[in-house]
């Protein structure tokens, strides 16, 4: 069942990324549910069967980034949290093939990569765990504000 973007936009994006990877790894499973079939069809139409993300996920990421920019301007506590998180994000970005990705995409990428490492039963360093906690808190705050903004409009 497709997660609702309104309930938690960060979880929605991570869920879509997970489904994309699942359908790439197990294309024969694409017709097991109507949801998987529909998402698989979208992946084919958008030309992302090998790599990349669905436009649904990209649009949600853009919405998060817009809210992030707004909160950076308006909320001193949020801005301070981002500043504390910056060293960990910069280190993560430097280790990727896309060092210029946005901070929000870096947070989501971090959480997704940690999920994959845990599935492989690999160890997570204390520094990465600390960055994960900070990124999780930041994304939780963004998701709550996204939901609140959606309810007030």
Write the layout of secondary structure elements.
Layout: H1 9-25, H2 34-46, H3 55-74, H4 76-94, H5 103-119, H6 126-152
Helix pairs in contact: 1-3, 3-4, 4-5, 4-6, 5-6
Feature tags:
single chain, 153 residues, mainly alpha, 6 helices, 74% helix, 0% strand
* N to C succession of SSEs: HHHHHH
Low-confidence stretches: none
How would you characterize the largest beta sheet? Answer: none
What percent of residues adopt helix (DSSP H or I)? over 70%
Structural class designation: mainly alpha
Counting H and I runs of at least 4 residues, what is the number of helices? 6
Strand content: under 5%
Shape: globular
Calculate Rg over CA atoms.
Answer: 16 Å
First and last CA, distance: 26 Å
Count of DSSP strands = 0
